[in-house]
Amino acid sequence: MNTTIQKLDELLAKVRAQLIEKKGLKEDPKQPEPTDELPQHPDTDYLIKVFNHLKDLGYINTQYEFSEQFLNKNKYYYGMILSERRHPSIDALHFLIKSISELSEAETNHQRLDALYEEGHSLITKRLLKNY
What we know:
- The protein is mainly α and about 130 residues long.
- The chain has helices at about 1-25, 40-55, 65-70, 75-85, 90-105, 110-130.
């Protein structure tokens, strides 16, 4: 059985070498390993923080609720942002910080919400200035 595997490995190596030569490709022995840990965008990190905090406070239970109630988007929006590693829209961020501001007024212990509001406001300002 080992000889069969060894023969297959040798055959695959020959075919690979022939393909590289035929197509004029350069062989790069140090190709990076695939990883699931791609960096998130700061706006996405912010959404994750807010989602977790609102969930801890009991305002939401699901990503669907967060998308609809706090981002003013369809129920799949937050999940799509996370899975596709996309930037949330400025209008979604704006609606979120507006909602956070309203919650902060209603909460007795609102320091964390105030900090999240300030962080969101800063992110929107940076995005707008970058596009200006």
